[in-house]
Amino acid sequence: MPVAYVLINTEVGAEREVLERLREIPEVTEAHIVFGIYDVIVKVQVERQDQLGEVISSKIRRIERVRYTLTLLSVEGFAR
Length: 80
What we know:
With 80 residues, the chain is α+β, with helices and mostly antiparallel strands. It has a domain at 1-29 and 48-66. Helix content is 22%, strand content 35%. It has 2 helices and 4 strands; from the N terminus they run βαββαβ. It has helices at residues 15-22, 51-60, and strands spanning 3-10, 28-33, 40-45, 66-73. It has a 4-stranded antiparallel β-sheet, with helices on one face. The longest helix has 10 residues, at 51-60. The two termini are 16 Å apart.
C-alpha cells in the first residue's frame, strides 16, 4: 500500500481545527500537531499510488486554514 507523509503549515492558531478536519478523511491514518517549521504531520495510506494526488490535492490541501503542504512519498520502511 502506498504511503505518504504530508507536512502542513496552517494559519496561526488553526492547528487543532485542521487536525479535526483531517479526522474526517478516511485515507489519513495518523495526524499529529508538531513543533518546528511545520504545524501538523499526516500519514496518508491508499490502495493505489494514483490515489495519493487526489487525497492530497482534493482533500487535504482544500481544508480551510491550510496554508501549504510538503509531501514525502515513502519508498521503503517498516512499522513495529
